[in-house]
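Troubleshooting log. The previous structure file for this entry was overwritten by mistake, so regenerating from the original sequence record. Sequence copied from the archived sheet and checked twice against the printout by T.R.
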Amino acid sequence: MHSLREKFWNGETSLEDERLLKEYYKHLPEEYAALPEEQYFILLASDPDAILDENFDVEVMSKIRDENKPRSMAPWLTGLAAILLLVLTIGLVRFFAPAKPDAPSIAVQPASALKDPELARAYEQTREALMFVSSKLNKGQEQTLLLGKFDKAKQQVQYTIVQ
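Regenerated output below.
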């Protein structure tokens, strides 16, 4: 069978040889077909009446010609035009947009500069409260950063396991 298969792939078989190959593989159980070429012969044997019609060559050649046709540049040019329009629009908006006035600055005075002692005490208490809130927010941000590092390490471990 091996030599007959070799003759088949070299195009040297007769119709009788091909019939013998089909007959052999028709009765061969599929679990014995380990090689892809054996599976090919089993497929051929499953439909012995499969014959290419005269339109086959014409259809194949037309598809080959269609693939070799030069591609239209219209989609490429459309994309380029869209990008240029986007860049031009952004440039015009930035050029003609009114300038934003600077935010008014708030002058912060130290507590010692305030003349009223009650205002100075209120200022100090407010400042201490804001500093307390700020420290808690900073601690929360540190914990968030640690969670981010943990998540990154977890993803690396999962990636390693998948590979």
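Residues 117-162 form the longest helix (46 residues). Archived copy saved in two places this time.
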